[in-house]
Predict the structure.
Amino acid sequence: MDNPTESMDHNLSMEHNLSNQTVADEDVLPDVTYVQSRIANVVFIGPPHAGDGEWVMIDAGMAGTEQQLLRRIEERFERSRPGCIILTHGHFDHVGTLIPLAHRFDVPVYAHPLELPYLTGRKDYRPPDPTVGGGMVSYLSVFFPRRGLDLGDAVRALPPNGEVPHLPEWRWIHTPGHTEGHISLFRERDRALVAGDAFTTVKQESLYAVLSQKREIHGPPAYFTTDWQQAKASVRTLQALKPAWAVTGHGRPMFGTELDESLERLAADFDWMAKPDAGKYVH
């Protein structure tokens, strides 16, 4: 299935199918839940039935999933609005519903200062590298959008001290490598981690793995990662936190011993487990 000699028409059809998978959701902790569209996760932080401004949305998933996200929001939070939307980064699969939802809720969007040029129309992301990762999704990445968004005044820089707006128990951590301004979020009380794409729990480069959602730890999606030294340092930063729970941008949540041992192994063996031997951004 991951043979790049398959026809182009079939490849484009599979790309379409990836972005239209049935959306699923799952509670991770009493106040942390996520919605999964097979290709990217959207996280909601806040207790069920929280009122206006008492919960936060992390990332905005794939284009075309707006109605599914709204249904989940209505189920969990009734008709309340988030206090804000926070982006781990601005790749297309994390901002697909951002413009309509930010407009609908009329709330600010926060991101790392280094990510702002890609969210204010000033820069586009660098081209993907379809030669890395060894899977059909990597091969298809040449068709993935990489244009920056222009959110104008709706997007703001995160506070410089690590504070997360509307989430006083959480702090954001700069975890670059996948993008310049990539961030993760961590709560010390229960060592809960929202990792974005700093690492994943599915081999995102493989179409079979994406469709089956087999849970296993991997580095950031290789085809869009542009600084592998920073990516390794970011994984080690997160591993040092000893998270007990992790929701990543791709794949199912991981927790407990499985997370601890897997993340320790990834941090120690990143060059072997995650970094490609060769590629556009490897050296």
Notes: DSSP finds eight helices and 13 strands in the chain. Residues 228-240 form the longest helix (13 residues). Confidence is low (pLDDT under 50) at residues 1-23. The helical segments are 8-18, 66-77, 98-105, 136-140, 207-212, 228-240, 256-268, 270-273.
